[in-house]
Amino acid sequence: QHSAVCLTALSGTVCLFFCFFSLLPVWRAFDKWLLYNIRVHKGVIPEQLVLLLELLLDEPDLSLTALRALEKTYHLQDRDAEVRHRWCELVVKHKHTAAYKDVERFLLQDQAMGVYLYGELMVQEDAHQQALARRCFSQAQEEMDPAVRKVVEEMIY
């Protein structure tokens, strides 16, 4: 509702300023809820983590605190490929640079599943992310299936 009211009542920079500050309490409450649930519910199965991460991918903004808490509590980088893939998507979407090592590891170890992630790294138009994609591709291309290699090569060059 705040966004709709904002867009109809105000315009330009004033609108963006108003919307951002009117939604801050919502995001702070979401972060607190997320951190609480992470502390309480440590014993989750991979399917639950995939669902959680997919829901979080729909969120336009997550705090660095929330991302770090997810990583620390669930040890996402040590989970199965499905969980790690969703984690890497969150890392790329929210530019969580401290976890780019997880993205690199995923691209090098799970090459077939990494095709979509290469696309995400390139579409963000972030120089660091694009460099990461190119670096990983140059390291992994010799081991890639030829069809996968061709698709990735077309995306990043």
From TrEMBL:
Domain Peptidase M1 leukotriene A4 hydrolase/aminopeptidase C-terminal: 22-156
InterPro entries: AOPep (IPR033577), ARM-type_fold (IPR016024), M1_LTA-4_hydro/amino_C_sf (IPR038502), Peptidase_M1_C (IPR015211)
Metal-binding as UniProt keyword: yes
Cofactor(s) listed: Zn(2+)
GO CC terms in record: nucleolus
Keywords: Hydrolase, Metal-binding, Metalloprotease, Protease, Zinc
One BP annotation, GO: proteolysis
GO molecular function, one term: metalloaminopeptidase activity
Parts forming coiled coils: none
Recorded family membership: Belongs to the peptidase M1 family.
PANTHER family: AMINOPEPTIDASE O (PTHR46627)
Protein's recorded name: Aminopeptidase O (putative)
